[in-house]
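Support request, please re-run this one:
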Amino acid sequence: MQQSTARLNPISQLAAALLLVVFNLTAAVAATPAPPAGTQIYPAVSNTQAIELVGGSTENVTWTAPAAGTYKLWAQIPANSNAVRATYTLYPKGNAVGNTACSSTDPTYPCYQVVVDQSITANSWVQLMLNNQAATSWTFTPSGYVSINASNISNTHQLGIAKLVYQSTVTPPPVFSIGQSYQGGKIFYIDSSKQHGLIAAPTDQSAVMRWWNGSFSTTGATGTAIGTGQANTTAIVKAQGAGSYAAKLCDDLVLGGYSDWYLPSKDELNQLYLNQAVVGGFASNNYWSSSEYDYSYAWGQSFGGGYQGNGNKNYALAVRAVRAF
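Re-run finished. Output below.
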C-alpha cells in the first residue's frame, strides 16, 4: 500500500478546514462554491490523529446525521480530488458493531452505496442520489451516518474528504406574528399551536350599526370564548334573517379574497382591543361582539378604555369583522 510521506496535521486542526486532508496538496486552491442549504457536518475519523487519502487506505471517515429526519445529502468534493470511484456508504439507521455487510434490504440496518467520480466533480458539491434521481431523500434515525474510505481506490489517486450537508426535506412551518398582514387583514391573535389564530379586517365595517334587526329576540349566540365568534354569527344571522345589522354586515363581507368573516365573540373582541395598536384603524368607540347577554342585551367593549359591558341591542356601535386562519 502506498502511503503519503507528508506529515499530517492533527484532526482537531483539520476539522476546522474546508479541505480536511490532502495528499501532496499545496496551500493555494480554488475557492469552493457555496454549500447547499442545510446542516453542514465535518467528518469524523477512526484515527484521531490523521486521515490517509491515498488510494488503498482503509481509514474510515464518517458524517453522523444531525438529528432524526429525512434529508437530501450533498458531499463537498475538494479541488484536488481525483478518485474515480469514491464510494459513499449510507447507514440511515446506523449499523451493528463489526458488521461489514451492505444490503438495502436489511430490515434492521439497511445500507446503500453511492459512487461519485471525483475526477470530474472536484471543487463542487455533489448530491448523493440513487439512480441519478434528484428527488432522492434519505430517512435517518439519530444513529444514522454516512461513511467513506479509500480501500477500493487506486493507489495513484487521492480521495477528497470534506463536509457533508444534510438538507432537510421537511418544509418548516410558517412563523406568524401579531400585526402581520395576512389573508385579507392583520393577525391579532395566535393560539398555542403557533400555526392558527385570528385576523382582523384592516378597517371598521361600520361606525354605527345596531346588533338587532329591528326587534328583540333570543338568538342563542351565547359563546364568549375565543373560537366561538363564527358560531355566534351563524346563529344570529339564522335567527334574524336578512337585514342590516352587525352580524349580517360581517357575514356578508368579502375582503381580500375571503368570505368567512364574522363578528368576534366577547373574548375575541378583547384580544382585538389588546392589540388594536398593531392592527390599526380603530376609533375610541364602543364595538359590538357577537356574544348575546340576554333577550335585550349583548356584549360590547370600549376601545377607548377597554371596559366590557352589555349594551341594549338597539344601540348603534362600531363593527370590526374578523376571521380565523
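The two ends are 65 Å apart (CA to CA). Residues 1-29, 48-52 have pLDDT under 50 and may be disordered.
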